[in-house]
Amino acid sequence: MTDPATTPERVEPTEDEARLRIVWRDGHVSEYEPRVLRLECRCAVCVEELTGRTLIHPDRVPAGVYPLEISYVGKYALRFAWSDGHSTGIYPYELLRSLCPCERCGSPGSRLAS
Fold first, then answer.
1. N or C: which end of the chain has fewer CB within 10 A?
2. What is the mean pLDDT of residues 44-68?
């Protein structure tokens, strides 16, 4: 059985198209700044596999980066094709929910965004 807190019902842009909205099966709504998600990529290009050291340089990710395409990976993750050309990251639903920036969830957001 899937956890409603980590199962998306809908993935869509916000009305102003500035953020990405995920409506979770438990009714919670998360809205993410695209750049924050891009900086949280944990693929082998962005994070050193053996040490976990971050390889992504925030100053090389444009402020206006946005997803060109969003696709589902099985029943556990999303993959984004970003406007900066990056597309190898897989974002598990658990990661996305843990990054929810709302007051209720209390996520500090990206450790790299600032």
1. N
2. 95
- Cα–Cα nearest to 99, from 33, 25, 43: 33
Please provide residue 8's backbone torsions phi and psi, each rounded to the nearest 5 degrees: -75, 140
Q: Considering Cα of 98, then 99, then 100, then 102, what sign does the dihedral take?
A: positive
List pLDDT tens digits, range 33-42.
Answer: 999 999 999 9
* The pLDDT of residue 88: 95
Q: Is residue 24 exposed (0-12), middle (13-18) or buried (19+ Cβ within 10 Å)?
A: buried
What average pLDDT score do residues 2-11 get?
A: 93
Task: Tell the CATH topology of 4-98.
Answer: NE0471 N-terminal domain-like (3.30.2020)
